[in-house]
Design a protein that fits this description.
- By secondary structure, the chain is α/β, with parallel strands linked by helices.
- It is built from 8 helices and 11 strands.
């Protein structure tokens, strides 16, 4: 499960990241509302944790903008504002739960797990064209043929399948898959896209990874 924490207090954001990673979650952090909105709209997260009081875009505004994009990602708001009107505004802006600071780490984890369970049937595969990616095994399937992906191939393919026809720049793929602190370069993306193209072809997939100069990669179904 992948979680985005949007919190302008860097120390708290990093503490939350550490806590959640120790409990088996994959976590990214953003330290302002504008960046948080940009990350959230990638559509790759299973849960958003938003602080309310941030410079620029506050948590309410980020939630409204995310919902306006028809993204149904669960949103947990963390804030020191505990008044009734604050809670109402938070829920009306699109939040699924409203947790006030200070909070207990066990309570936070319980809220997160409850929100993730509330999504109903968990998505266990991504499908596009005649091809599916089994998220539990990392196997690409097309009809009766299948091929197992390496961990890095899986991450790149999953990101592409989640974005489908929307272009993803090499820089975006690098930051999402390799991480912001990685020494990986754009050539790494090109290499793994090459690996995936060969594996898609090997199973007879009609899914093609197309590239557009300066815009990046997207998926298309071959007619």
């Amino acid at each position: 499960m992948k979680i985005l924490v949007v919190e302008d207090e860097k120390l708290l954001a990093d503490s939350l990241k550490s806590l959640l990673e120790k409990n088996g979650f994959e976590v990214d952090t953003a330290y302002d509302g504008e960046t948080g909105e940009e990350y959230a709209e990638l559509g790759v997260y299973d849960l958003l944790i938003l602080d309310v009081m941030m410079p620029g875009l506050n948590g309410y505004q980020v939630a409204r903008r995310v919902r306006s994009k028809r993204l149904a990602t669960p949103i947990l708001m963390l804030t020191a504002k505990s008044g009734l009107e604050d809670r109402i505004e938070g829920l009306n802006s699109g939040a699924d739960y409203y947790l006030t600071k200070p909070f207990n780490s066990r309570e936070l984890l319980a809220c997160i797990n409850a929100l993730l369970r509330r999504q109903g049937n968990q998505v266990d595969e991504l499908v596009y064209g005649n091809t599916s990616l089994d998220l539990s095994s990392g196997i690409l399937v097309c009809g009766e043929k299948s091929v197992r992906l390496s961990a890095r191939e899986f991450d790149v393919m999953r990101f592409l399948l989640q974005s489908k026809e929307r272009n993803l720049s090499k820089e975006t793929i690098l930051s999402r898959v390799w991480g912001y602190d990685s020494n990986a370069v754009e050539n790494h993306v090109e290499v793994y896209v090459g690996f995936l193209r060969k594996k898609l072809k090997s199973i007879g997939s009609n899914v093609k990874i197309e590239s557009i100069r300066r815009l990046g990669y997207h998926l298309e179904v071959e007619e």
